[in-house]
From TrEMBL:
One of its GO terms (cellular component) is cytoplasm. One of its GO terms (biological process) is porphyrin-containing compound biosynthetic process. This is Heme chaperone HemW. Residues 12-249 form the Radical SAM core domain. Probably acts as a heme chaperone, transferring heme to an unknown acceptor. Binds one molecule of heme per monomer, possibly covalently. Binds 1 [4Fe-4S] cluster. The cluster is coordinated with 3 cysteines and an exchangeable S-adenosyl-L-methionine. Keywords: 4Fe-4S, Chaperone, Cytoplasm, Heme, Iron, Iron-sulfur, Metal-binding, S-adenosyl-L-methionine. It is found in: Cytoplasm. Its cofactor is [4Fe-4S] cluster. PANTHER family: COPROPORPHYRINIGEN III OXIDASE, RADICAL S-ADENOSYL METHIONINE DOMAIN-CONTAINING PROTEIN 1, MITOCHONDRIAL.
Length: 392
């Protein structure tokens, strides 16, 4: 490790336990809305996994990592399950033997429905994976086709059943609303179907249109018709009602969980904690020092093979900027921002720092400020982005 890096990573007192993220940047095909670092391929390269394994060994030996016990491992993508169960299980085992993890560590693998089998999932479960996140998006072949997803409703149902058979008792399903051609009735059908499987966690995101995607280009040309704002709001309201009735508590703007099944890996991101991200395009934040990894999988693999660190740009945010960033991220959670945690981490509290701005937002009914915390109200949640923009 270059000296400059090893001296930056000194232990930080009072820091919460970090998470480890591995990025698999391959998918069977590209969805029309996707802006993630993912590349279409039918047969993912073994060399990429070898490079990732080499990075796992390298980082596990660095002082910052040796001094810490990790609470979560998340293998995301892309589509991690595009690799076979044995290959992924080997990667998981390598992490578990190279880094120190808490006894009850949350270990998640993301997958897409047409890339999982009972055998592969059983292998992952035996390797220690205890949470599966499936990208279902919709239980409708018409809508899946419109999104350019590579799987069908039948494959989604089969994947969830395979996950239960493989021994998973903690499953997240990703679903999307506000899709082209989707009505509130369609959305209700997707939610009902998802709930029929009794998932422990649901992530329900409204479709966002990103530039430089097929959907982005269609929107520019006026050729993509999305649901009216009122209809999208109705879908959002339906989500909260149906999921609450099913016992899934909303704990973040778009995330719902059975009690105790909140995604701990993502909670750490929203608390602006430390995390090590390995793989093409992955980002790390170690005690406030944030840096990226080169995005292109071939470049990542090539640099590692040459014995070089595949790092991209890095920055160390000033304390006040980190404080603001943490407030904005924690406000995404329904629990809101704990003043005690902010005081402990930054020596600052939101009332002292923002002053009148909080009074104004409170007068508008968008936030609630108590003795020890700050959170969005029911009225503030749907316009969260506007509230957060005032606090950045
Ligand atoms: S499956 Fe996910 S990561 Fe892959 S192309 Fe579709 S949206 Fe992107």
């Amino acid at each position: 490790m270059p000296e400059a890096i090893s001296t930056v990573f000194t232990p930080a007192s009072g820091e919460e336990v970090p998470g480890l993220y591995l990025h698999i940047p391959f998918c069977k095909s590209r969805c029309a809305y996707c802006s993630f670092n993912s590349h279409a391929c039918q047969s993912p390269p073994a060399a990429y996994l070898a490079a990732l394994a080499s990075q796992i060994r390298y980082w596990a030996d660095q002082q910052w990592c040796r001094e810490r016990v990790f609470a979560t491992l998340f293998i995301g993508g892309g589509t991690p399950t595009i690799y076979g169960g044995d290959e992924l299980a080997e990667l998981v085992r390598l992490c578990l033997t190279s880094f120190r993890f808490t006894e009850d560590a949350e270990i998640t693998v993301e997958g897409n429905p047409n890339t999982v089998t009972v055998e592969a999932l059983t292998t992952l479960r035996r390797a220690g994976v205890n949470r599966l996140s499936l990208g279902v998006q919709a239980f409708s072949d018409r809508l899946l086709g419109a999104l350019g997803r590579s799987h069908t409703k039948g494959e989604a149902c089969a994947a969830i059943k395979a996950a239960r058979k493989g021994g998973f008792t903690n499953i997240n399903l990703d679903l999307m609303y506000g899709l082209p051609g989707q009505s509130a009735t369609d959305w209700r059908e997707s939610l009902d179907q998802a709930l029929a499987f009794g998932p422990e966690h649901l992530a329900c995101y409204e479709l966002t249109i990103e530039e430089d995607t097929p959907f982005g280009r269609l929107v520019e040309k006026g050729a993509l018709i999305l649901p009216e704002e009122e209809e999208a709001m109705a879908m959002a309201a339906l989500t909260h009602d149906l999921l609450a009735q099913a016992g899934l508590q909303r704990y973040e703007i778009s995330n719902y969980a059975m009690p105790g099944k909140e995604c701990r890996h993502n909670l750490n991101y929203w608390r602006n904690g430390s995390y090590l991200g390995l793989g093409a395009g992955a980002v790390s934040c170690l005690s406030g020092f944030r840096f990226g990894t080169v995005r292109e999988p071939g470049e990542f693999t090539g640099l590692v093979q040459k014995g070089e660190l595949p790092l991209a740009e890095g920055e160390c945010l000033p304390l006040a900027a980190r404080f603001r960033e943490s407030v904005v991220m924690e406000l995404r959670m329904l629990d809101g921002v704990s003043f005690a945690r902010m005081q402990r981490r930054f020596g600052l509290t939101p009332p002292g720092y923002y002053g009148n701005i909080l009074d104004e937002l409170q007068a508008q009914g968008l936030i609630v400020v108590t003795q020890d915390s700050l959170r969005l109200t029911e009225a503030g949640l749907p316009v969260a982005n506007q509230v957060l923009a005032r606090l950045v």
